[in-house]
Amino acid sequence: MPRLFTALEVPRNIAMSLSLLRGGLPGARWIDVENYHITLRFIGDVDGRTADEIVDRLDRIDRPEFQISLNGIGSFGSKKPHSIWAGVSPSQEMSALQSEIERICQRIGLPPDPRKFMPHVTLARLKACRLDDVVTYLSGRGDFHTLPFKVSRFVLMSSKDSIGGGPYVTEEAFDLRDFGSGTNRSSVEPIKSFV
């Protein structure tokens, strides 16, 4: 069974802006542009029945579209950095969506996510990078930001058991409510069943 997670997609024009941050850091393994995303909730390896139940519950989420932008870059792992990321502007709607997905996962019986939600787009994985090189890289790019973009759906994605960074496959897509509408736009038909 593939590893599952929920995410927000990064529009192509925003992904191209992110791609300009690639390079200039020895030892970095850069994520492919088509694999950029904002993880909402890592679900992990689950059986087909649980995956189908997750899809059924996620399909009932009724939340409005919202706008976000990306700004700033940073690294995880203060003394021994292991990844570079682009930050996501705070959004009450995004946080509410993420919290609802977390509640759904716990109701299904999955353990709570131990990490505090910190929305970001992973740009690179680091292995054997010198701290000084990471600091230099970040200091030259700290003013990165994008224009706001509309989030009109969230997705359930899968990844192969690999070192990280993809390839990722969109298994299901869930529309958010149109700004001017009181109901969801047409729900996407299931792409596949996991059972």
TrEMBL record:
<keyword id="KW-0436">Ligase</keyword>
<dbReference type="InterPro" id="IPR009097">
    <property type="entry name" value="Cyclic_Pdiesterase"/>
</dbReference>
<comment type="similarity">
    <text>Belongs to the 2H phosphoesterase superfamily. ThpR family.</text>
</comment>
<dbReference type="GO" id="GO:0008664">
    <property type="term" value="F:RNA 2',3'-cyclic 3'-phosphodiesterase activity"/>
</dbReference>
<dbReference type="InterPro" id="IPR014051">
    <property type="entry name" value="Phosphoesterase_HXTX"/>
</dbReference>
<feature type="domain" description="Phosphoesterase HXTX">
    <location>
        <begin position="8"/>
        <end position="85"/>
    </location>
</feature>
<feature type="short sequence motif" description="HXTX 2">
    <location>
        <begin position="120"/>
        <end position="123"/>
    </location>
</feature>
<comment type="function">
    <text>Hydrolyzes RNA 2',3'-cyclic phosphodiester to an RNA 2'-phosphomonoester.</text>
</comment>
<dbReference type="InterPro" id="IPR004175">
    <property type="entry name" value="RNA_CPDase"/>
</dbReference>
<feature type="domain" description="Phosphoesterase HXTX">
    <location>
        <begin position="91"/>
        <end position="162"/>
    </location>
</feature>
<feature type="active site" description="Proton donor">
    <location>
        <position position="37"/>
    </location>
</feature>
<dbReference type="GO" id="GO:0016874">
    <property type="term" value="F:ligase activity"/>
</dbReference>
<keyword id="KW-0378">Hydrolase</keyword>
<protein>
    <recommendedName>
        <fullName>RNA 2',3'-cyclic phosphodiesterase</fullName>
        <ecNumber>3.1.4.58</ecNumber>
    </recommendedName>
</protein>
<dbReference type="GO" id="GO:0004113">
    <property type="term" value="F:2',3'-cyclic-nucleotide 3'-phosphodiesterase activity"/>
</dbReference>
<feature type="short sequence motif" description="HXTX 1">
    <location>
        <begin position="37"/>
        <end position="40"/>
    </location>
</feature>
<dbReference type="Pfam" id="PF02834">
    <property type="entry name" value="LigT_PEase"/>
</dbReference>
<feature type="active site" description="Proton acceptor">
    <location>
        <position position="120"/>
    </location>
</feature>
